[in-house]
Amino acid sequence: MRPEQWELYKKAAKLQPVEQIPVALIIDSPWIPGYLGMSHLDYYFDPEAWFRSNLRIMKEFPETIVFPSWWAEFGMAIEPSALGCKICFHKNQPPSQFRALFRLEDLDQLSPLDPYTDGLMPAALHRYQKQKSRIVEEGYEIRMATARGPVCTAAYLRGITELMLDIADNPGGVHKLMAFVTDGIIRWLKAQAEVIGPSVEGIFILDDIVGFLSPKHYVEFAHPYLKRIFESFPEAWVKVYHNDANIAPFLEDLAAAGFDVLNWSYKLDVGDARERTKGKICLMGNVPPLEIGTRGSPGDVKTSALNILRKTGGKGIILSLGGGVSPGMPRANMLALIEAAREFGRA
Predict the structure, then answer these.
(1) Contact call for residues 141 and 2 (beta carbons, < 8 A)
(2) What pLDDT is recorded for position 250?
(3) For 157, which DSSP code?
(4) Can you tell me the distance from the alpha carbon of 80 to that of 96, in angstroms, rounded to the nearest whole number?
(5) What does the alpha-carbon distance between residue 160 and residue 209 come to, in Å, rounded to a whole number?
(6) Coil vs helix vs strand at 325
(7) Virtual CA dihedral for 179, 146, 133, 235, nearest 10 degrees?
(8) What is the DSSP code string of 248-278?
């Protein structure tokens, strides 16, 4: 993102007064290749195609904060690949991941994750290293280190169903697994910050699988590990958490995990989210990404966005979708968010 966009986002994230309503969208490989008419393989593996694609998106949507911006990602495959999971790439969709830890007791045989040597992590770090000077020359900066969260990463390694059963049958083993992946995630985030350099002033954690847990299990198996990740980085950094699954049963506890910004599901009303988090965190959302963002008209998007802004009074809010940009979302609908923010600002 451009320096002035980062300053606006950072102010909003830290609940400081802003001169305009920020509009930020999570834009990544589920959407970019299809929008640009290219294959996912070219986007992932051709560095020039990746650079030109991201630059084009930045220029086509200059008033939108593309988030996290210049993300060297391979769908959801980076963390699982570094832990030994089989990854299958496809021409016209993000890759698939397959579990590798068939017995929880085999965790002792796994080496600690090394982001400089393991899986796709070195490829992402190499891309940051090679492209960062070109990004700066174009007037942009890489501000965020990004990773899948601990429950999500554990579920990729162990399997979602298997992990849920383990929570009931072997809680001690699950805690050992969660500590293992949390250590790896922190190393991965710190490696990104080291390679990208001092422009990094934030972290972005995505973990939808947390939404599969009961309130009791969230407190035991997710909260300590999320909190540890967020606390491993400077307090002044911007810390963003994405979960568009069901966080309603434990939202109050989740809000105390140590992040500044929550991107959450449209199924939890923005007014309820504001009330239950007591205005202590910035909310990033929450126009329905598929039903309205992709399938609706620009007018539908604008109406939904204005409703969100009115409920919050335009304070403590970064206007966005309740999740990432879905495949097929049209340009006109993305621009409708900008128009809604402008109209609200003029009111």
Answers:
(1) yes
(2) 97
(3) H
(4) 10
(5) 8
(6) coil
(7) -80
(8) GGGHHHHTTSS-SEEEE-TTS-HHHHHHHHT
Q: What is the pLDDT of residue 175?
A: 98
Q: Evaluate whether 80 touches 113 at the Cβ level (below 8 Å).
A: no
**Which residue, 179, 153, 176, 181, is CA-closest to 166?**
176
Residues 6+ apart with CB under 8 A from 4: none
Kindly report each contact of residues 43-48 with a partner whose C-beta sits within 8 Å and lies 24 or more positions away, as own/partner: 44/74, 44/75, 44/89, 44/95, 47/127, 47/130, 47/131
List the domains of the chain with CATH numbers: 3-346 (3.20.20.210)
Q: Which of 344, 305, 337, 280 is nearest to 66 (CA)?
A: 337
Helices 160-169 and 171-196 cross at an angle (nearest 10°) of 130
CA distance 188 to 125: 10
Predicted local distance difference test score (pLDDT) of residue 346: 79
* pLDDT at site 347: 62
d(Cα 81, Cα 133) in Å, to the nearest integer?
Answer: 27
The number of CA neighbours under 13 Å toward the Cβ of 38 is 19
**Nearest one of 154, 38, 27, 40 to 95, comparing CA atoms:** 40
Instruction: Give the residue ranges of DSSP H helices in the chain.
Output: 3-13, 32-36, 40-45, 47-60, 78-82, 121-137, 150-158, 160-169, 171-196, 215-217, 223-231, 251-254, 270-277, 298-312, 331-346
The pTM of the full predicted model, rounded to 2 decimals, is 0.97
Query: What is residue 84's predicted lDDT score, i.e. its pLDDT?
Result: 96
Instruction: Report the pLDDT value the prediction gives residue 214, as an integer from 0 to 100.
Output: 97
Write out residues in the chain with pLDDT < 50, as ranges. none
Distance CA 29, CA 24 (A): 16
Spatial distance between the Cα atoms of 183 and 196, rounded to a whole number of angstroms? 20
* DSSP result, 166-211: HHHH-HHHHHHHHHHHHHHHHHHHHHHHHHH-TT--EEEEE-GGGG
Compute the residue count for the chain.
Answer: 347
